[in-house]
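chain below, 273 aa
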Amino acid sequence: MTRLKRMANLLATLAVMAGFTCVASASTIVDKFGDDQFVQAFGANPTGVPSSTLIPSANILGGFRGYYVEKTAGSVKPSKTVKGDVDSSVSLLTFSRDGGIGGRAIVQWDGDTNAPVTFDPRSNLSFNLNGGSPVDFTAGGELGLLLRVFGADVAGQQIRVTLFGPNATVASDALVTLPAVNGAPVDVKVPFASFAQTSIGNGAVFNALSPALATQVYALTFSITGPDSSDLSIGTVSTYAPEPTSAMLLGIGGFGTFYGLARARLRNRRSRE
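prediction:
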């Protein structure tokens, strides 16, 4: 076998392996929303009773999820509410505001049974997502977080995603503005490259002394805001890796380019002989 053919075979094998390696890459699941939870703010009381999962769950990164909602505008009638719900029968987290009612919510993952008690991403927060050790969200080559949005009745609802280091002075966040989703689910990607050092944290100003890194995450929060009278439903939250097809095509494309150049060189050499 000629040197050219041996090299071509080697590159072809590497290209296929690159594709399969990417396919096999596993994402980190933050929450499958397979554990029921409910919190509500109603009447003249603007804040709901914070809710937390009390039994460690394999469906949740760190074992626990905290949920807090707050009423911000509208009628004081008891029938007018802001609700946060996790329904395990459909594996969805929902946040809803009744007609004419404004509200906001925080969901936190910090490896503890506590729950937020104010609309502040540092509120009642532990930093124990992995038993005191950091979680590396990029360990499998992941590029960011993936939110599967099953419903957003109006455009403009926002989720501020905040990553924390070992304490509240180390934090980075990214603000995601959602489109209206009234049909098929939409995957919303939040690249780690879009996270910046936190300076304003959702209703409470706090200056992080340094940015949190996706390679060293000790806690994670979602702060949800949006237009009055709007509803939101989110499915599994996870990290995401590069598309397998892209990686495979890149490998095969590189092999094809090399092989074509090598064959042209061989033809030129034969024509001179």
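Confidence is low (pLDDT under 50) at residues 7-24, 246-252, 258-264. DSSP finds two helices and 16 strands in the chain.
thats it, cya
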